[in-house]
Amino acid sequence: MLNKVVIFGVGLIGGSFARSLKKAGAVHTIVGVGRSAASMARALELGIVDAIAVAGDPASLAEALHGADLVLLAAPVAQTEAILAAIAPHLQGGTVVTDAGSTKSDVVAAARSALGSKVAQFVPGHPIAGRETNGPDAAIDNLYVGKKVVLTALAENTEADVERVAAAWRACDAIIHRLTPEEHDKVFAAVSHLPHLLAYALVDDIAKKPHADLLFQYAASGFRDFTRIAGSSPEMWRDISLANQSALLTELDAYMAQLTTLRAQLAAGDGAGLEGVYTNAQHARHQWITAIETAEAPPKD
């Protein structure tokens, strides 16, 4: 049981963390902190949090952080250093801080800069779950069931502090994985950040065409499924793209080379070449889906 949890950013990710902890009976009090007074008032009205604090008020932050067992940063990654710098003067020895950012190397650098000698209290994390909705009304109590949470612990972290973060996520029915910050960013550049970039690019390209209305009129389930993630927060994905610039550029260059190959095969009428790529992709996707379904299968009674 956590006595007090403080969450910066009570939207889909932070709000769902709060709802999940409450559903599990794993927390006594949750305090929400955010930039928008209206959003925080809504989180309080919905019962996601028990109290709210003002992000720019040192006295309010000090009160919120007093006696906190765990602090979760669920704000856009570009805000990480500013938030950590704001809480650093009020961070007590028994408090563990974690985050939900989709990039980790930049977050670790921000933590070292903002927290200084208190960086040992920061355990970086990333829940691999989400939807294309935002704000407190998007929060649900089962978002993390069966989903992975990657912890990228620092050398300075104690195992007890890492376990406190892991236990909180396990209370949300999540599955804990461990990577280094560098491994994390390379992996997610390929399987998360690049797909978002591509989805945004395709929808933007079609929207700019003079006959966009006609094209969207006939876009069906395939287009909807492929571009679903383009409904995500532009601010958040701008920050993620820039934060993981190097790894994302590497993956984008590799994908552009793949497109060049496919274009050459198409221009040459190379049906066998195209079919080979399609077949390999189909086989790999089937294997991936089977593995995911096995990993996320609910436990048997």
Coarse morphology: elongated
CATH architecture of the largest domain: 3-Layer(aba) Sandwich
The overall number of domains is 2
Give the proportion of residues in helices: 40-55%
Low-confidence stretches: none
The Cα radius of gyration reads: 21 Å
Tell me the fraction of residues in β-strands, as a range: 5-15%
Distance between the termini: 25 Å
**CATH class division of the largest domain:** Alpha Beta
Widest β-sheet, arrangement of strands: 3-2-1-4-5-6
CATH-wise, what's the superfamily of the largest domain? Answer: NAD(P)-binding Rossmann-like Domain
Number of strands: 9
Quickly give the structural class: alpha/beta
- What is the number of helices? 12
Taking the sheet with the most strands, its summary is: 6 strands, parallel
| Helix-strand string | EHEHEHEHEHEEEHEHHHHHH
Quote the CATH topology of the largest domain: Rossmann fold
Mean pLDDT: 94
Polypeptide structure, described:
With 301 residues, the chain is of the alpha/beta class. It folds into two domains: 2-179, Rossmann fold (3-Layer(aba) Sandwich), CATH 3.40.50; 184-269, 6-phosphogluconate dehydrogenase C-terminal like domain (6-phosphogluconate dehydrogenase C-terminal fold), CATH 1.10.3660. It contains twelve helices and nine strands. Strands 3-2-1-4-5-6 form a six-stranded parallel sheet, with helices on both faces. A three-stranded mixed sheet has the order 7-8-9, covered by helices on one side. The chain is elongated. The mean pLDDT is 94.
